[in-house]
Amino acid sequence: MQNKYIKKILEADVYDVAIQSPMEQAQVLSERLESEVFLKREDLQPVFSFKLRGAYNKIRQLDAASRKRGVITASAGNHAQGVAMAAQKLNTRAVIVMGKNTPSIKVEAVRRWGARVILFGESYDQAAAHAAALCEDRGYTYVHPFDDPEVIAGQGTIGMEILRQHTGGIDAIFLPVGGGGLICGVGTYIKYLRPEVKIIGVESEGAASMWAALDAGKRVKLDPDELDQFADGTATLQVGKENFKLARDCVDEVIRVNTDEICAAIKDIFEDTRTISEPSGALSIAGMKKYLERADEPKGQRCVAVVSGANVNFDRLRHISERTEIGERREILLCVTIPEQPGSFRKFCHAIGKRAITEFNYRYADKNSAQVLVGVQTNADYADKKALLEKLGRKYSFIDLSENEVAVLHIRHMVGGRSMGLNNERLFRFEFPERPGALLRFLTGIGSRHNISMFHYRNHGSAWARVLVGVQAADDEMMSLRRELRDIGYRFWEETDNPAYRLLLS
After folding, report:
1. C-beta neighbour count of 168 within 10 angstroms
2. 2-50+149-320 — its CATH code?
3. Which of 94, 247, 274, 328 has the fewest CB atoms within 10 Å, measured from its CB?
4. What architecture (CATH level 2) is domain 329-403?
5. Separation CA 429–CA 467 (nearest Å)
6. Residues noted as catalytic
7. Residue ranges of domains in the chain
C-alpha cells in the first residue's frame, strides 16, 4: 500500500492552483522552546488552506464525461473552497452542500469561486447525506474531504516540499488531524524516505477521533452531542477508512490540546509571522509546544509544524484573545472571599503584589464577606503561579477558576451580585446554532411553564453560540424540563452545581 501512495504523491500535479508554500523558522518560538521550530505556511495558499491540493488532484484525474456531469461535496469550510477553486480551474461544475447555520462569510467565499451553494440541514451529517443523495440522483462525482486516495495523495505533496525545503535533520513533524487526509498523505511519504522522523498528529480534546481510533485499534465514532466545534475545521466524528489504515503505519503519536492552548498557539503564530491562523490551523503549534514542554523531551530538537489554514471569522478574534493568556498560563482567574470591611481591597491588592490585575469584579453580598472575581497575570512558569496561590492561601479562601468553562465563557462577564428570593433556579449551558430564529425556537420549546431567570449569550464568530440560561423548576418538574430541552434539539449541559455559579451568582 505504501508504494502505491508514494507513486500517487509523486504524480500529483497540484501546482496549477497551489503554491509551494514557504517554510519559515519561527524565531520567537524557537527561543522560547529552546528548539528549532519551522512553520510550513499552508495558510498562504490561494484559498488560505491546504485543502486545495487534495481537491484539485482528485478532480484533475476525472475523465471528460465525469467532469461534464460535475462534482459535489459537503463542507462548511476549507474543503468547500478548495473544491470550488479546483473546479473553476478545470472548467467543471461544482455543487457544495453546506448546513443552514454556516456563517455567511464562508458561503460567500465559496460562491466567489463560481460554485453553486445549497444550504441544507442543521449539521454536517445532514448536509453530507443530502450531498450523497444528489450525487446518486444526478451523477455527480463526490469529492470526499479526506477518505479518498487521490485526495490523500494531493495533501502528501506537502511532505515532498518539507524534505526539499529542509535538507537537514528533522526530529518531528506536527500536523492537525480531522479526518486524516493531511497526516496520512504527509506521514506516508515522510516515513518511506525518512522513517526516523516522528509523525505526530494534534487534535482538539473534544474532537479526538484519530486518538480514539488508534487507542481502540479500530475506527471509533464520537458522540455528536459531545463534539467540540471550536476547531471546526478538524471537528470530525470519525476518521476515514483509508486514513485509519495508513495512520496505523505512519503516525507515531496523537496529542490532544484544549481550547485555551489552541488560542495561545494562534498568538504564537501571530508573534512570529504577524498573521492570524484559524483554530484548526494552530493545532500543530499547540501540540508541538505540549510535546517539547514534556519533562522527558530533550532540548534542541528540530521540529516542523504545518500551519494548515487561516479562514477565521473576524468577530471570533475577541473570544480567542480573551482566552489566550489563560492558554499561555499567563493569567489565572480566581474567586476570592474577602472581608466586607474598609481597607479589604487595599490589603488584597498588597497580597497580589506588583502583578498586573487583568480584571476585578465585585458587588456587595452581605455584611460579613464578599466574593471577588479577579484575573491576575503571572509568568508562564508553574512556579510563579504556585507561589502566588500559596501566598493568597495563607490569608484568603479562594477557588481557581482558570479551567472552569462556565466561568471563563460567561460568569466573568456577568458578576453583579446574587439575586435574592429566587427559588429553584437551575443553570444550563447551551450551544445554539448561529442563525435567525434560533432563540425563538428555544423559547417556544421551553414554553410558558418555566420562568427564565437568567440569560447570557456571546457571539464567538462560529457556527454555534455559547449560551448560559437560568430556569426556575421545582424538583418534581425536572424530568419534564429536561425532556422539553432535549426536544428543542440543541446541545446542553446542566451547570447548577458549578462552583463559579454557586459563589458568584446563585
Report:
1. 6
2. 3.40.50.1100
3. 274
4. 2-Layer Sandwich (3.30)
5. 6
6. 51, 308
7. 2-50+149-320, 52-142, 329-403, 425-504
